[in-house]
From TrEMBL, chains A, B:
Residues 9-69 form the HTH tetR-type domain. One of its GO terms (molecular function) is transcription cis-regulatory region binding. This is TetR family transcriptional regulator. It comes from Rhizobium lusitanum. Residues 32-51 bind DNA. InterPro entries: DNA-bd_HTH_TetR-type_CS, Homeodomain-like_sf, HTH-type_TetR-like_transc_reg, HTH_TetR, Tet_transcr_reg_TetR-rel_C_sf, Tscrpt_reg_MAATS_C. PROSITE patterns: HTH_TETR_1, HTH_TETR_2.
Length: 207, 207
DNA sequence: ATACAAACATACATGAATGATTGTAAATAT
DNA sequence: ATATTTACAATCATTCATGTATGTTTGTAT
C-alpha cells in the first residue's frame, strides 16, 4: 500500500482535483470528505493524512491559483506606469482572456466566490479573498492616484470611487459569468465594459 | 400556550427576523433551526409549525424582498420610455438610495448573494435568484433595444453587452459593498459608476 | 359547556459527517 | 538486515442537525 514520495504527491493532487469538482458541484458545506475521497479513489484516511480537515483542503485549493484581482494590478505594475488608466484597461482584458481559457481556475474561482459562504465572522478561506480584494483595491488606488496627478482623471470621478468602480465591475462580471453558467461571451462583454468604464474616467470623456 | 391569530403571525415574523440574523451571521448551511428558534425565543416546534423546513424559511425570506434588479427595471417601466438610458440611470440610483437605508433588505440581500451557495445543481432558493436575474436581463435588453432603435446607443456597445454590463456592475457593486462590511459609500460610488457606464453608452461619448 | 382545532413545546429516533484510533504494507534509513 | 517511518485503509465513538411523533394548552365554534 505504501507508495513512494511521488505517488504520495500524486494522490495529494488527485484529492485536490476531486475536491475542486465536488465543491463545484455541491458547494463547500454540501461536500463531505467521504464524497471527495470516493471521487479521488481513496479513503478519508488519505485525506486526513495530507490535510488537517476540510478547511485546509479549501485553503490548499485557494493557494493554487491567483485571484484575477491580483493579476490585473500586477500586469499594470509589470508594464510600466506611463498611462495608468490604459494599463488597467489592458491588464483587465489580458486577465479575462487568460481566465476564459483555464477551466481549473474557473472552477476554483467559482468555488471561492459562489460555492463559499461569506458570513459575518468570516472563515479563513473567505478571509483570504477579502484580504486579496483589499490589497487589489489599494494598488488600484495608487495607479489611479497617478492618473489623477497627471490630470487624466475625468471630473466625474474621485480616486476612491474609480478604484471601487473597477473592482466592483470586474468582480461582478466574473461572478455573473460563472453564476450564469458562462452563458455570455466573457471577453467580449468584459472588453466593452472595461473600455466604457475606463473611457468615462479619462479626461473629457466624463459625460 | 395557544395564541390568537395575530400572535401566531407575530411569532412567524419573529422567526423570520431571527432567521435573517442567524443566516447573516453564520451562513445558511451553518445555521441550525435550533439556533434560529433560540434567537426567536421559541422552540424548533414553532418553526416546523410555520415552515416545512429550513429551505422554506429561506424562501419566505426571499419572497419578502424585491431584488434590486427587479426594482430598477420596474422604475424605468413606471416612468415612461422617453429616454431609456436615462431611465436606467435614474432607476439604478433610486434603488441604491432606498437600499442604503433599509437594513433588513441589506441583510436578506446579503444572505442571497453571499451567505448562500450557488452550486452546479442549484437549490431552489438559488434558482429563484438566477431566474430573477434572467428576467431582469431580458427587460434591460428591451430598454436598451429601444435606445438602440433611437440611435442613442454608442458604437462601443451592443445591446446584449450593454445589458450585461449594467447587470454585472450593479450586482458587483452591491456584492462588494456588502462583502466589505459597507466600507465605502454605496450611493456615492454607485452614482458615479452608473453615470460613467451609461455615459459611455450614450452616442458620442463612447470613446 | 363541550368539542375541536390551532399553536406551539417536548421527547425521541435516525442518519450523516466528523475526528480519532488502530492496523498495516511498503519504502527508506541505518 | 533490521528498524523505523511513511502513506494510507479500516473501524469506531461522538456529535449534531434533522424530522417526526406526541403531548399540552388555549382559542373558537356550536
Amino acid at each position: 500500500m505504501r507508495r513512494t514520495k511521488e505517488d504520495a504527491a500524486k494522490t495529494r493532487e488527485e484529492v485536490l482535483t476531486a475536491a475542486a469538482e465536488i465543491f463545484y458541484e455541491n458547494g463547500v458545506s454540501g461536500s463531505s470528505l467521504e464524497k471527495i475521497a470516493k471521487r479521488a479513489g481513496v479513503t478519508r484516511g488519505a485525506i486526513y493524512w495530507h490535510f488537517k480537515d476540510k478547511a485546509e483542503v479549501l485553503t490548499a485549493l485557494h493557494s493554487e491559483i491567483r485571484l484575477p484581482q491580483e493579476a490585473i494590478v500586477d500586469y499594470a505594475i509589470e508594464h510600466g506606469h506611463d498611462d495608468p488608466l490604459g494599463l488597467i484597461e489592458q491588464g483587465a482584458i489580458e486577465v479575462l482572456q487568460i481566465l476564459a481559457e483555464d477551466e481549473h481556475q474557473q472552477r476554483v474561482f467559482a468555488i471561492m466566490i459562489l460555492g463559499c459562504e461569506f458570513t459575518e465572522h468570516l472563515t479563513d478561506a473567505a478571509q483570504r479573498i477579502v484580504t486579496a480584494n483589499d490589497e487589489m483595491f489599494g494598488k488600484l488606488q495608487k495607479l489611479i492616484e497617478m492618473a489623477h496627478e497627471r490630470n487624466t482623471l475625468g471630473p466625474l470621478w474621485t480616486v476612491d470611487a474609480a478604484a471601487r468602480g473597477i473592482q466592483c465591475s470586474m468582480n461582478g462580471l466574473l461572478a455573473e459569468w460563472l453564476r450564469s453558467g458562462k452563458s455570455f461571451p466573457l471577453v467580449d462583454v468584459g472588453e466593452r465594459l472595461i473600455r466604457g468604464l475606463v473611457g468615462s474616467m479619462r479626461c473629457g470623456d466624463s459625460r
